[in-house]
């Protein structure tokens, strides 16, 4: 075969020499007859291709070259390429087709170009290059039509080639469309049997892929009817080809005897014909047949033959499918490792074809293999990927099915139009007019219906959009109104709590203030309930579970009602199951549920009634019950009690939203709430909520930074006691708040123990922080110009202010808001309305943490940035400080003013920054660092004490000794002796 290729190349070189003079357009009848004879003899060799076929191809080319007949040379190259394609030497085939194409383009030979493009497309298909096949097949159709030349056979064959390539890319809609075009051409003017039969065969394969087996079998029979019309050798070859796919269709419909007969005969035929591609395909079908006949060993032999042959012949999709069949067989034998090996082989081969359906199957069986190995985590991962891919494929297939129906409808409409035109030719002119009018009327009705449905659809879209906008506006309104409510509530609640702490209050005064406090808390609860209902309706409320010590949590919720029970002389019993483990719950939801159920129980129970609370966990379900005696509900009331705004009596206190909210919150937590009642036992509410971690997805779990510890449920606020500071040494507090009332109230809380600076927005606050370097900052979040988040970000990124603790005080209590604030560096977060005692405690604790940090580093030679868990801005400042100390510390002229210039800050700014980090003023810091360096030098005993003083920047040895004794409690000499 190599000699043949060299000989053909030599002929092509000779043809190049011949091109020095223009090609002749025609040749004599005698020469033309001789070429036709050679071509007829060549065409008789269908399968296998013997050397005789190549001999006649070379004869045609040699003769065309000798006659300088350009079209003959192009045709000879095309015929030789077709011979190479038939024996699957695709590279040689492509070389000849490209030669034929180049010469055809030079001669403007449309049919030659069409044939060359068409066969190039088919050869690219055999190489698995589907995109290239589609491109050149489209060029084949375009080149035939370019000058109006009608060569229907090439056009039809190109449509079939396009359909084959599209089906390999799993684009069945386009594939069917092109095959229906071929069928339409055949109906108008009968095509050559092999051309139309190829279309029927490909259409049958697509129906087979779509599992429409009766339609597939019908198309295969239609193909065989056409192949019967061919000469004996060709007919036998093509019918055996069709029988391969017909046998597969019978196999899928459980007609095993018919399938066995067809597949076995075809297998023997193509084995003899040495056609590896078809042998491999048949081997795959025979393997499936043997599986159905319960012969797995024989099936495996066929599958391995199919996989190996396809892989060796560069057919990646078919090889991948063969590997998948082997993997499935290995899985049935519990050979997971072998199955995974073949799945990976299939994955690698599928990279070239990107067949989504095959990829979904591979993911599914990969999950099954990992499940057999006991690796359920990996099994779940791949199973989930397969499910997602299947969902996306189903959506695509649904869309394609609609397009397919439309295409079929279009074809059928065209067929009806053709029949109508034939009938119109036979009828009178009046009948034609009537039919045209009828058609126009039908189109008018269709248009009107289309417009009706279009406007209906558009109106629905508009309505849906308006509803979404309304929901968004409603959620925004509730969020804003909540913020507006919380600000005055803070101004009411805070002063009331402050007044209640006064020991000089009289009985009636205290009673009135306690009443005001209770009503403030009630109003706060109503605002929270309304906001929670709004969030539930709009879908804004998300489940946020976290690990919780339920024993501590539930005891904290139930103990808060002991005071109410004693006030009403109720018998209040709590029987909670002791729980040592942690379980997963949304603490905010469970707290609201407990509060509503217990609050209702005490509210509607008469004095001396019994309220009994229980909790138990069984099989991962928390069952929490609240029972109260003294009242009971009718059957109708039990059915209606969870309806929003429903009240059993019109004169009952309350708003009627507590139980409705409770039910929706429990359902959000994937649980249930039920009520039972009788006159003897009273009313019993039972809440069931799953508390196992596996029930909840990652999105339903709270960020670990916001976890609440068990101690926070039961322990009271601890305020760190420190000595009262004199006004001169009072810490400097910067308060940033746009509301004057809140600003004045918070300032009044701290005015006796802090020096308070104020600002009205984040921009002013940052400027004040840079100028005054406060000890702590309290800031609102929602402010004009710049909000609290921007203030926090600016302060934490600035070297002068990065160390300052920041507490965000706001009505925005969403978890996402807290995460945003903490994420940009806020040290604490407190929501309005707030307790003044809690605010004082938070501030004192933040300052105490800063004081401990000062003590920690006051003993170091110099601040070590790597030991401080602070921001990068602090690290940059300390690095600059370290560089200045290393350079200037031993300079006797190094003073506070030089220090400020070196750090590029004012003296006050440096003083407050150093005071915050180390507890020293600027001058004290320089002296402290010099003395600590001196201490190190003395310990090394390398130079005298007087030299140590001069070395670290002291001009006077006696002053150095005095300072050393003040710092370390002994003179340098005594320190050296003890050392």
* Strand percentage: 5-15%
CATH class of one domain: Alpha Beta
Terminal residue distance: 98 Å
What is the number of strand segments?
12
Radius of gyration based on Cα positions: 45 Å
How would the global form be characterised? Answer: elongated
Mean pLDDT: 77
What can be said about the biggest beta sheet?
5 strands, mixed
Low-pLDDT segments: 1-20, 146-150, 714-726, 863-869
- Oligomerization state: single chain
CATH superfamily of one domain: Histidine kinase-like ATPase, C-terminal domain
The third-level CATH topology of one domain is Heat Shock Protein 90
Q: Which structural class do you get from the secondary structure elements?
A: alpha/beta
Tally of alpha and pi helices: 39
Second-tier CATH architecture of one domain: 2-Layer Sandwich
Biggest sheet strand order reads 2-4-5-7-6
Q: Please give the share of residues in helix.
A: 55-70%
């Amino acid at each position: 075969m190599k000699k043949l290729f060299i000989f053909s190349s030599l002929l092509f070189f000779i043809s190049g020499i011949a091109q020095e003079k223009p090609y002749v357009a025609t040749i004599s009848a005698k020469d033309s007859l001789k070429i036709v004879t050679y071509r007829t003899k060549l065409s008789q060799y269908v399968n296998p291709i013997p050397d005789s076929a190549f001999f006649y191809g070379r004869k045609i080319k040699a003769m065309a070259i000798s006659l300088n007949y350009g079209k003959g040379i192009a045709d000879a190259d095309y015929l030789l390429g077709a011979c190479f394609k038939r024996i699957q030497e695709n590279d040689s085939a492509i070389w000849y087709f490209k030669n034929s194409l180049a010469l055809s383009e030079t001669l403007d030979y449309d049919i030659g170009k069409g044939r060359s493009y068409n066969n190039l497309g088919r050869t690219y298909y055999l190489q698995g290059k589907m995109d290239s096949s589609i491109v050149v097949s489209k060029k084949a159709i375009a080149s035939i039509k370019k000058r109006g030349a009608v060569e229907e056979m090439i056009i039809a064959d190109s449509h079939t080639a396009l359909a084959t390539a599209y089906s390999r890319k799993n684009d069945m809609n386009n594939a069917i469309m092109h095959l229906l075009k071929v069928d339409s051409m055949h109906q108008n003017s009968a095509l050559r049997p092999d051309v139309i039969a190829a279309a029927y065969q490909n259409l049958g394969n697509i129906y087979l892929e779509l599992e429409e087996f009766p339609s597939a079998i019908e198309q295969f029979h239609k193909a065989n009817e056409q192949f019967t019309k061919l000469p004996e050798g060709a007919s036998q070859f093509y019918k055996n080809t069709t029988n391969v796919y017909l046998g597969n269709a019978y196999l899928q419909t459980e007609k095993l005897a018919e399938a066995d007969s067809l597949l076995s005969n075809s297998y023997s035929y193509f084995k003899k014909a040495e056609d590896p591609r078809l042998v491999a395909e048949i081997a795959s079908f025979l393997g499936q047949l043997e599986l159905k006949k319960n012969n797995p060993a024989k099936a495996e032999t066929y599958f391995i033959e199919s996989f190996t042959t396809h892989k060796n012949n560069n057919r990646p999709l078919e090889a991948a499918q063969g590997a998948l069949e082997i993997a499935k067989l290995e899985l049935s034998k519990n050979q997971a490792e072998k199955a995974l090996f073949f799945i990976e082989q299939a994955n690698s081969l599928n990279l070239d074809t990107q067949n989504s359906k095959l990829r979904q199957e591979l993911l599914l069986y990969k999950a099954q293999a990992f499940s057999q190995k006991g690796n359920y985590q990996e099994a779940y991962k791949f199973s989930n990927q397969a499910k997602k891919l299947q969902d996306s494929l189903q959506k695509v297939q649904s869309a394609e099915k609609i397009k397919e129906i439309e295409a079929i409808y279009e074809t059928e409409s065209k067929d009806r139009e053709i029949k109508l035109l034939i009938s119109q030719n036979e009828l009178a002119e009046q009948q034609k007019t009537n039919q045209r009018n009828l058609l126009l009327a039908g189109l008018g009705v269709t248009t009107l219906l289309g417009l009706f449905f279009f406007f209906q659809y558009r109106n629905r879209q508009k309505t849906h959009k308006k509803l979404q906008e309304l929901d968004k506006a409603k959620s925004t309104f509730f969020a804003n109104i909540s913020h507006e409510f919380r600000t005055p509530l803070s101004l009411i609640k805070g002063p009331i709590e402050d007044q209640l702490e006064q020991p000089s209050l009289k009985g009636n005064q205290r009673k009135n203030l306690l009443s005001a406090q209770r009503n403030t808390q009630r109003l706060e609860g109503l605002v929270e309930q309304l906001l929670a209902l709004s969030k539930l309706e709009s879908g804004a409320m998300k489940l946020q579970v976290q690990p919780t010590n339920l024993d501590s949590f539930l005891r904290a919720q139930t103990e808060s009602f002991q005071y109410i029970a004693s006030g009403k002389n109720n018998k209040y019993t709590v029987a909670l199951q002791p729980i040592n483990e942690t379980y997963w719950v949304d603490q905010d939801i469970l707290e609201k549920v407990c509060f509503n159920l217990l609050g209702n129980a005490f509210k509607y129970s008469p004095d001396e009634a019994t309220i009994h609370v229980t909790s138990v966990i069984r099989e991962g379900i928390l069952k929490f019950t609240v029972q109260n005696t003294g009242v009971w509900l009718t059957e109708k009331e039990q059915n209606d009690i969870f309806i929003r705004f429903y009240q059993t009596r019109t004169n009952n206190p309350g708003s009627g939203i507590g139980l409705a909210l409770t039910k929706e919150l429990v359902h959000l937590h994937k649980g249930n709430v039920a009520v039972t009642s009788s006159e003897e036992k009273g009313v019993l509410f039972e809440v069931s909520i799953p508390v196992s971690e596996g029930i909840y997805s990652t999105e339903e779990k709270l960020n670990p930074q916001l976890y609440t510890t068990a101690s926070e449920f039961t322990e009271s606020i601890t305020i760190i006691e420190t000595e009262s500071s004199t006004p001169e040494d009072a810490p400097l507090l910067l308060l940033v708040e746009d509301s004057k009332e809140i600003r004045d109230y918070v300032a009044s809380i701290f005015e006796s123990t802090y020096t308070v600076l104020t600002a009205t927005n984040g921009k002013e606050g940052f400027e004040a922080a840079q100028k005054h370097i406060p000890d702590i900052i309290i800031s609102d979040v929602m402010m004009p110009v710049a909000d609290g988040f921007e203030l926090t970000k600016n302060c934490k990124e600035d070297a002068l202010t990065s160390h300052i603790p920041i507490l965000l005080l706001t009505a925005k209590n969403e978890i996402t808001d807290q995460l945003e604030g903490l994420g940009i560096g806020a040290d604490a977060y407190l929501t309005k309305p707030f307790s003044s005692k809690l605010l004082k405690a938070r501030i004192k604790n933040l300052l105490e943490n800063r004081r401990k940090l000062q003590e920690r580093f006051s003993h170091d030679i110099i601040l070590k940035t790597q030991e401080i868990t602070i921001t990068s801005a602090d690290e940059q400042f300390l690095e600059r400080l370290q560089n200045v100390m290393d350079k200037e510390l031993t300079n006797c002229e190094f003073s506070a003013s030089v220090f400020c210039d070196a750090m590029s800050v004012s003296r006050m700014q440096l003083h407050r920054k150093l005071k915050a980090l180390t507890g020293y003023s600027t001058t004290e810091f320089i002296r402290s660092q010099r003395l600590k360096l001196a201490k190190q030098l003395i310990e090394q005993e390398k130079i005298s004490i007087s030299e140590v003083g001069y070395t670290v920047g002291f001009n006077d040895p006696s002053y150095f000794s005095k300072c050393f004794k003040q710092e370390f409690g002994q003179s340098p000499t005594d320190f050296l002796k003890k050392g």
